[in-house]
Amino acid sequence: MDILLVDDNEDYLGLVQEALCQNGYTVHTAHDGVEGCEILAKHDIDLIISDIRMPRLDGLKLHSYAREMERFRKTKFIFISGFTDFYAGQIALNPKLDFTLTKTTPIRDLLRMVDELIFGRLEGAWL
User: Fold this and answer.
1) Are 50 and 78 in contact (CB under 8 A)?
2) What is residue 8's three-state secondary structure?
3) If we measure between CA atoms, which residue out of 22, 14, 20 comes closest to residue 45?
4) What digits encode the pLDDT tens for the residues 49-65?
5) Least C-beta-crowded within 10 Å: which of 12, 22, 33, 69?
6) Quick one: 83 exposed, middle or buried, by C-beta within 10 A (0-12, 13-18, 19+)?
7) In 3-state terms, what secondary structure has residue 121?
8) pLDDT tens digit string along 70-104?
């Protein structure tokens, strides 16, 4: 499963990338929305995780770019921000496809959310 991870904070980017890779995901990283768009143009991505406030192209514009592409219209998207306002009202989020977390969310909770979004609620369950 391929994940696009976009964040201009190098430390946070590295921390989340390492955690996702250790859990078996292939992670494509970008430092802003421009690099994120370049990756989307070249790769099949199963989930997008993006900061909101970034230079050159922010996470909201990256989200719009992804939604304009047929192959990413239904791709799940997690916004992560160090700010709690999440640009309220500036973007129409689909509650089945778009999610928000703060950067203070523990990595284990982020990983749990990623697993559930990619594999569904049965991931890790005994059947």
Assistant:
1) yes
2) coil
3) 20
4) 999 989 999 998 999 99
5) 22
6) exposed
7) coil
8) 999 999 999 998 766 655 555 667 778 888 888 99
